[in-house]
Amino acid sequence: MIDFFVDNFSSCVFLAVILMALIPTIESKIAIPFGLSYAIWGEATLSPVVAFLCAYVGSMIPCIFIIIIIRKLKNKTSGFVCDKFLSKAENRYSKRLEKLSSKSKTFYKLSTLALFVAVPLPLTGVYTGSLIAGLSNLKIYQAFIAIAVGEFISCLAITLLCVLFEDSTFLILIASLIILAIFIIFDLIFMLVKNKRKLKTN
Fold first, then answer.
1. What is the pLDDT of residues 26-46, one digit of tens each?
2. pTM for the predicted model, two decimal places
3. Based on the domain organization, do 21 and 69 belong to the same domain?
4. Which residues of 102-123 are buried (b: 16+ CB within 10 A; e: fewer)?
5. Domain check: are 138 and 88 in the same one?
6. Are the C-beta atoms of 129 and 122 separated by less than 8 Å?
7. What is the pLDDT of residues 46-74, one digit of tens each?
8. Within a domain: residue 198?
């Protein structure tokens, strides 16, 4: 994947970072060290500010669309596929949804969503936060602001990490990809085990 971006976007690294940040799960967590890696881009490497802005914009582009689409599917489910997808998503993020659906103050709910997005770990971020927001009863503009704040904090933390360890940016990128792969593998294993247990109980 990295080779694809290097071969096709060596003259416009900012676009490569935006597109990288658009990819689900990868998002800004990988896009920022990718754009700041001198080992990949050489003299074309982006500055921390540009990498931050490109990754932030790229990761935020899908947010409003995901919230609106999920909200519409929730209100007007159209057939077995939509029902199954929504029920699985609701079961998966039930604890988060309980917090967002509680009778607590709106500020607390928005802070909870923002903090979830802000943690720069795999399986958190804009895509997951937008999905949860779409399933919740939060107003769309409120959810968008909370996610935007959370993603800003996440991007800032990753950028600062890369700046502090400027000589190890490529290693940060590789480590991030390895951690991402491990999280995805364990998540898939957990889902398979959970499904088998459900089948046995049924």
1. 899 999 999 999 989 988 999
2. 0.85
3. no
4. eeeeeeebbbbbbebbbebebe
5. yes
6. no
7. 999 999 999 999 999 999 999 998 888 87
8. no
